[in-house]
Amino acid sequence: MRVRIFLAIFVVSLFAASCTPSGAQPVFNSNLIPEATSIPMSPSPHVVATLTQRIDSFDVSPDGKAIALATNEGVRLYDLQSYKYLRSLNNGELATAVAWSPDGSKLAVGSTKDYGVPFFVGGDSSNSDKAHLTVWDTSTWKPVFEPEFGNEMVNQMFRALEWSPDNRSLAFSPDLGGVQVLDTQTGRSISNQKDFAGSVIDLSWSPDGSRLVATNDMAYTVRRWRVSDNQYIRLFDQRAGNSMTLAWSPDGSRIASGHSGGGVCLWTAATNRCGGFIQAHRSATFSLAWSPDGSQLATGGGILRIWDSATGKLIKAFGEETDYIYQRIQWLPGGSLATLEYSPQKPGSTLLRLWDPSNGSILAEFRGQQPTQ
Q1: For residue 370, what pLDDT is reported?
Q2: Are 340 and 55 within 8 A, CB to CB?
Q3: How much is the pLDDT for 311?
Q4: 306 and 355 in contact (C-beta within 8 Å)?
Q5: How many CA atoms lie within 13 A of 179 on its CB side?
Q6: pLDDT at position 129, please?
Q7: Which pLDDT score is estimated for 226?
Q8: H/E/C letters for each residue in the chain?
Q9: Is the dihedral of CA 192, 193, 198, 200 positive or negative?
């Protein structure tokens, strides 16, 4: 009888092991913000350019050689090796989102085109500000995709814009329109998600291109869905507040999300559970980014913090600010960080900085300032 029981347990153990997702994720719960002295700010950063526009978003090319700045007067491109100005796109438009395709062959710009008197002051809806999506071929700098939206995109602006890993589909979120995915070769809509709690301000594709995740779903949840059939689930953890930023890990095994209470959840994709929780910031985690190898996670509030993604332990902190908040973080191919900061105390004032995360020093800085009326 004992032999039979042992064999039964052995068989069940083998079956359970075969059903367990490979690369089991570590579990940790860091409820307190670690007390760590931040690295002092660089006294004299190299200022690349001072723009007379507000910088609303940015994206660095996959090879790390160029940066596109979305401003309230179009897009400005700079060389990140020489720091020279390259060109402008979508001039005169309010550009709020910009995204390079993963292979670097295309650049997508989400902007608002002024068609006349805004609808909300009595104008005709067909003659109002309308969201404008342009895809540029980066070898010729000619537009290759420019869909004509209907009145549903009047008085809308792009909150997030993300390419699929195969360089073909664009996911975007207007103010109140949920999330749409367009095939840029055919113009066909291949996915549409609605009924969010508010504006979706961040999106992320799974590395295999089959799924998307988005912030600001109902009841403090993160929405995850399959693009092929729009079937979705909601990720919820009682430790986390409203989701504000998120990113799929490079290997596809986890999803990191930053929340209004300052928490960060590291969701295991195989189980849809928050296996790792970090109290990363005091008020809110506004931005985050995985390192290229997935071993570290950078988060931004009023300071930048780098975490060990396997243990949840703080590695270093730098860039502490009193007037600025880190709105966006991007980890670059060479290991440096790019960040966009805005100031609640100084409306229209923005800073885009390049950092060496090994020592917290500022490598270069773009300053954006929208002139006061």
Answers
A1: 86
A2: yes
A3: 95
A4: no
A5: 32
A6: 81
A7: 98
A8: CHHHHHHHHHHHHHHHHHHCCCCCCCCEEECCCCCCCCECCCCCCCEEEEECCCEEEEEECCCCCEEEEEECCEEEEEECCCCCEEEEECCCCEEEEEEECCCCCEEEEEEEECCCCCHHHCCCHHHCCEEEEEEEECCCCEEEECCCCCHHHECCCEEEEEECCCCCEEEEEECCCCEEEEECCCCCEEEEECCCCCCCCCEEECCCCCEEEECCCHHHCEEEEECCCCCEEEECCCCCCCEEEEEECCCCCEEEEEECCCEEEEEECCCCEEEEEEECCCCCCCEEEECCCCCEEEEECCCEEEEECCCCCEEEEECCCCCCEEEEEEECCCCCEEEEEECCCCCCEEEEEEEECCCCEEEEEEEEECCCC
A9: negative
At residue 117, the pLDDT reads 35
| pLDDT < 50 stretches in the chain | 1-23, 115-127
pTM: 0.89
CB-based contact 68:62 (threshold 8 Å): no
Tell me how far apart the alpha carbons of residues 191 and 204 are, in angstroms, rounded to a whole number: 14
Alpha-carbon gap, residue 192 to 205, rounded angstroms: 14
How far is residue 273 from each of residues 17, 18, 60, 345, measured CA to CA in Å?
Answer: 19, 20, 31, 37
Break the chain into its structural domains and give their ranges.
55-165
Q: Is residue 98 within 8 Å of 57, Cβ to Cβ?
A: yes
- Give residue 319's pLDDT: 95
Q: Are 152 and 142 in contact (CB under 8 A)?
A: no
Decide: 248 and 235 in contact? Cβ < 8 Å.
Answer: no
Q: CATH: 3.40.50.2300, 2.130.10.10, 3.30.750.24, 3.90.1150.10. Which one for 55-165?
A: 2.130.10.10
In angstroms, the CA 290 to CA 298 distance is 6
Structure tokens at 47: 């200022």
**Token reading at 210:** 């089959």
Q: What's the order of all strands across the beta sheet hosting 179-183? A: 158-163, 169-174, 179-183, 189-193
